[in-house]
Amino acid sequence: MIAINLVRSGTRPMLALARISGFPNHPRSIDAYYPHYADFRTPRLFSRETDPSNGPLYMTAAPSGLFSQSFMVRLAVPSATTSQTVLLGILLALTVLFSLRQWLLPRALPGIPYNAAATRSLLGDIMALQQELPSNMSEWVVRQGARHGAPVYQVFLVPFARPFVVVSDFREAQDILVRRAHEFDRSDLAVALLRGEMPRFHACLKTGPAWAAHRRLLQDVMSPEFLHGVAAPNMYAGARRLLDLWRLKTSVAGEGRPFAAAADLSFATLDALYDFAYGDGAEERALVEQLALLEGLSEEAREGLRERAGEEAVAFPCAPLAPAMEALLRTTENIPAVAVTGFPDIAWRVLAWFPRVRRLRRLKDRFIKEQVEKAVARLDKAAAAGEDQDGVGGFSKLKCALDLILQRERTLAEKDHREPVYWSDAIKDEMFGFITGGHETSANVLAWGVKFLADHAEHQAALRTCLRGAHPAAVAGARFPTHAEITHARAPLLVATIEEILRLAHATAMTDRQATADTVVLGHAIPRGTTVVLVNKGPGYTAPNLPIAEALRSASAQKALAERPDAGCYRLRAEEEEEQGMGRFDPTRWLDADGEFDPAAYPTIPFGLGPRGCFGRRMVYVQFKQLLTLLVWQFEFLPCPSGLSSYEAVQVLTNKPRQCYVALREL
């Protein structure tokens, strides 16, 4: 209902919006002219009462359901006349603007907790996020669970869109990802964030024939035979380069003097992915450039580094990367830049006009095409020599993942009676996806890992003892274990340490899925198209479970518990366990009574689960086994000064530590 107060006064009228019910802090004022209120003829919309003593004229209007709230206006009307059309235009504009605002405001799903202030702002929860924790969206989302005290809640982080429903419970997350995968698919938002750079990457595809075809093309890349026989030797070589670099830096800085480690771990991971994806075909290696730079420093320059550092960390120079490597990394940085806009589709279109972006994309595409051409030449040469592989059982002649993918394409083409297509958007995007999907995540997990080891000397020492016991031949020969020895060694504490680092690093703190049909999650109705975010931190993971009635769980979740009632990951985490430190670094929590590794000992989802889980998770374990074995074998990680040991996380694509330094003692 609109109440209009018309008052005769002066010669110039003013229309002042005095109050909108529910919005007392939003005054507005505008000028208007209205001549003959007596000629106002809108009996269907307006009613009026006239004070015979030349007092105010009161008019009310109810524009047919446009408003659910009322507001009051006062109009000073002179004896002079103005156009009634202006007043009608003003009223119509106010009506339209207010109605549009009401229509655009976020709408909460019924029955699910949310921040009430979010539904009164066009930006939803975005302003609260910016005020409370602007550097880490995932951490802010996790904290809302404790704020609401509920395992299911909703947040509004994309303007003019549906809320995200957040689930903070391991059993429900596992059920959605594994046993209810037919009800949930890759979310539209996740697809939109990636498709600007690699639209044909399998992670950008909804589950269906196209996605299945991509997985068939890639299926042998993560097989144990290929990982152990081809990938492990390549990754081992990269790990040895990191050891050489850190030995040199330790000798320059001095034993126990800290230096920044994040860039070196990033380069080591990038080299490992290059080794895995392209093998010897790509000559560029980031760590090779860093080693060459440091080895070329004169003794005077090295002394200068130590003097400038004083009591602080030694700052080493960093060599520039090869243009192709630089293009791959810089192109990947477009993804978080697009994500923060909230409108990825529009942002990708705008970004495509930037000359720098187009130049980097051309460099990236040219590099991948050159690698494809080299791989095809290798396959043709092997075929001519009678050494062609079947792409399934034999990998001795294959040098890298690209060789295997192209061999797989050749095999599939023969079965389908068609010519193989070696250069396509699908292959280009898959090869770029290897770098994008694996580089930042692995590098940041390793950055957290060296911090955990340095700050928990007892667990580091126990791991070193385990490794030396698992490699007696290497100990006897005073050498490093080989890649084959590391791959096949029985070292349960090594696997447990990797799992604990992954659990607490929270490099990817959230996994998202989109409901493909109307469904129910823990008793709450979830409409089709709603994005469901599954966190792997907070209640149920690093804090005690929030209470959930068993009857609210799906039949499949209840059945899973009945089949494995002793599984540690299903056990209810009580308050007393919080005192023991659910968020504390302790690899032994993954070992059973016999000292064997138990993968179901604790709730964690570092790579997602089910058919849409992280494709490269097996590769990560192979890489981490090689790298951690060699690092702990060669160095003792010493605690860094408190000013260099912050555990604050910053979110880019994944969560990384704001500070990552190492202080090493060579063994």
From TrEMBL:
<dbReference type="Pfam" id="PF00067">
    <property type="entry name" value="p450"/>
</dbReference>
<dbReference type="InterPro" id="IPR017972">
    <property type="entry name" value="Cyt_P450_CS"/>
</dbReference>
<dbReference type="GO" id="GO:0004497">
    <property type="term" value="F:monooxygenase activity"/>
</dbReference>
<dbReference type="InterPro" id="IPR036396">
    <property type="entry name" value="Cyt_P450_sf"/>
</dbReference>
<keyword id="KW-0408">Iron</keyword>
<keyword id="KW-0560">Oxidoreductase</keyword>
<dbReference type="GO" id="GO:0016705">
    <property type="term" value="F:oxidoreductase activity, acting on paired donors, with incorporation or reduction of molecular oxygen"/>
</dbReference>
<dbReference type="GO" id="GO:0020037">
    <property type="term" value="F:heme binding"/>
</dbReference>
<dbReference type="InterPro" id="IPR002403">
    <property type="entry name" value="Cyt_P450_E_grp-IV"/>
</dbReference>
<comment type="similarity">
    <text>Belongs to the cytochrome P450 family.</text>
</comment>
<feature type="binding site" description="axial binding residue">
    <location>
        <position position="614"/>
    </location>
    <ligand>
        <name>heme</name>
    </ligand>
</feature>
<keyword id="KW-0503">Monooxygenase</keyword>
<dbReference type="InterPro" id="IPR050121">
    <property type="entry name" value="Cytochrome_P450_monoxygenase"/>
</dbReference>
<keyword id="KW-0349">Heme</keyword>
<protein>
    <submittedName>
        <fullName>Cytochrome P450 monooxygenase</fullName>
    </submittedName>
</protein>
<dbReference type="GO" id="GO:0005506">
    <property type="term" value="F:iron ion binding"/>
</dbReference>
<dbReference type="InterPro" id="IPR001128">
    <property type="entry name" value="Cyt_P450"/>
</dbReference>
<keyword id="KW-0479">Metal-binding</keyword>
